[in-house]
Write a structure and sequence with these properties.
The chain is of the alpha/beta class and about 210 residues long. The protein contains eight helices and nine strands. It has a seven-stranded parallel β-sheet with strand order 3-2-1-4-5-6-9, sandwiched between helices. The protein has a two-stranded parallel ribbon with strand order 7-8. The longest helix is centred in the middle third of the chain and has 21 residues, at about 85-105. The two termini are about 20 Å apart.
């Protein structure tokens, strides 16, 4: 059975994937309300609720009911400024968003993680992503979907040297390691939101690409 979410929380609406996903959600005739907390105002829309301010404090201002929550929050160590600051966003804030969404009635949480996420990884980035996934599993969601894309392709508001250099090559890497366009990922996330399947599902980049066609 496919149940269409009508009341949605979107964390990370100003990011590369979040922008595409927000456009998608607001164009869906069945979506009645999208709650998208951000640090800067978004364009107004009759179905959009957009609390603005420092993100952790915004969580207490959110109101339900919610059906589904998407989390597209993500940073880099360089962008965050330190490993501790990176963990605060990509681990702590993601778990806080999920907890608040659950309190407001959401039964399905969909999070953008990363290919290679592993709590035992020697790579700090992958380890934090893996620990975040384990933290979400411990929250005992009725339905938890973990998306693990490879390198995201598309224009960003901030310049990332390593991604700019890698992007041309990642278009040709075979299988799940090939780069995925953010608009494709956003379409896949919406498709996953329509699936009624209790428990934890991990979807890696090749399947995300297929779902987002």
């Amino acid at each position: 059975m496919h149940l269409t979410p009508q009341h949605i929380l979107l964390a990370g609406a100003t990011g590369l994937t979040g922008e595409h996903l927000l456009d998608r959600l607001l164009s869906e005739p069945t979506v009645m309300r999208v709650v998208a907390p951000t640090r800067r105002p978004l364009a107004e829309h009759p179905h959009l609720t957009n609390p603005v301010g420092p993100f952790p404090e915004l969580l207490t201002q959110l109101h339900g009911p919610l059906d589904t929550a998407f989390c597209c929050l993500g940073s880099t160590i360089r962008q965050a400024g330190s490993q501790e600051a990176f963990r605060a966003v990509d681990h702590d804030l993601v778990l806080a968003v999920a907890q608040r969404a659950r309190e407001l009635g959401a039964r399905h949480f969909i999070v953008v993680s990363a290919l290679g996420a592993n709590p035992k990884s020697q790579v700090f980035y992958n380890r934090v992503k893996g620990e975040m996934e384990e933290g979400l599993k411990a929250q005992d969601w009725p339905q938890l979907t973990i998306a693990r894309p490879s390198l995201l392709l598309g224009p960003r508001s901030e310049f990332r040297v390593s991604e700019r250099l890698a992007a041309p090559l990642m278009r040709w890497v075979p299988g799940k390691y090939r780069g995925i366009h953010a608009c494709t990922l956003a379409r896949a996330l919406w498709r996953l939101a329509l699936e009624e399947d209790n428990g934890v599902r991990i979807v890696e980049s090749d399947d995300l690409r297929r779902l987002g066609r």
